[in-house]
Amino acid sequence: MKITFVGTGNMGSIKRCNTSVLVDDILFDVGMGTVKQMQRLQIYTKSIKYIVLSHFHADHLLDIPNFLCGRIIRHELDYLLTIIGPAGTRQKIIDLMNFTHGDGNPHKYDNPEEHFNLKVVELNDGDMYENNLFKLTAFELDHGKCKPINGYILEKDDKKIGYATDTTFCDNYYKICEECDYVISEVNRLDTGDMHIGLEDFINTIPNYPNAKFYVVHRGDFDTSKYDDSLFPDDGDVVEI
């Protein structure tokens, strides 16, 4: 498998793009600027067969319209795109398309599946999506009052990859760390709060999971020079696992 860190920053970062991670043909989160960033990295939308959304904040889903309209512009509707996310994902797609590309017809995007040749799968805590290539399980995370929000465990090629952004420490976060070979984790700021994980607390937590390799994303522009560089990928970095 190939993990490409399309973006590794949080919404306030001036050094990095919003967090988005590509695992083979599965794109986790597509916040504002993600599509342009993929073009810079020469990653083309036709190579992506699945989009997995964690939650509905702008830095995680706002480029959905750019992605979908780009499929039409680039004549890429000959294959099915599957979008997986929390409950309410389908309606969010409709709302975003009406907001960004409304042309006076309030029903133009009522059937996004047909309009964009896509399938929408909504997962609650513990729900699973599975095909002959991979299995994806959703885990509800804790991001303050933001609901719903999912972390995920991706099982593919006999490996487990955890994805947990925009969360503070919670039981499902620990479960993802315990079960996975690789964990793509948020560390948004220096101090842990009710919405985000802090750097020092994260550094003190990861020794509890010696079987997992961690990668930090969704992070601010704080100094990480005294820590292992491999923990903190930059935009565009690629890891083969």
Question: Which helices and strands, and how do they pair?
Answer:
Layout: E1 2-7, E2 20-23, E3 26-28, H1 34-40, E4 50-52, H2 58-61, H3 64-73, E5 81-85, H4 89-101, H5 112-116, E6 118-122, E7 128-130, E8 135-140, E9 150-156, E10 159-164, H6 171-179, E11 182-186, H7 199-205, E12 213-217, E13 238-240
Parallel strand pairs: 3-4, 4-5, 5-6, 10-11, 11-12
Antiparallel strand pairs: 1-2, 1-13, 2-3, 7-8, 8-9, 9-10
Descriptive overview:
The protein is built from seven helices and 13 strands. It is of the alpha/beta class and 241 residues long. α1 links the parallel β3 and β4.
Order of helices and strands: EEEHEHHEHHEEEEEHEHEE
Number of strands: 13
The number of helical elements comes to 7
Derived from helix and strand composition plus strand pairing, the structural class reads alpha/beta
- Provide the spatial order of strands within the biggest beta sheet: 6-5-4-3-2-1-13
User: Kindly, what is the distance between the CA atoms of the first and last residues, rounded to a whole number of angstroms?
Assistant: 5 Å
Low-confidence stretches: none
Mean pLDDT: 96
What fraction strand?
A: 25-35%
Query: Which range best describes the helical content: under 10%, 10-25%, 25-40%, 40-55%, 55-70% or over 70%?
Result: 10-25%
Q: What would you call the shape?
A: globular
- Rg measurement, Å: 17 Å
Main sheet: strands, sense, barrel: 7 strands, mixed
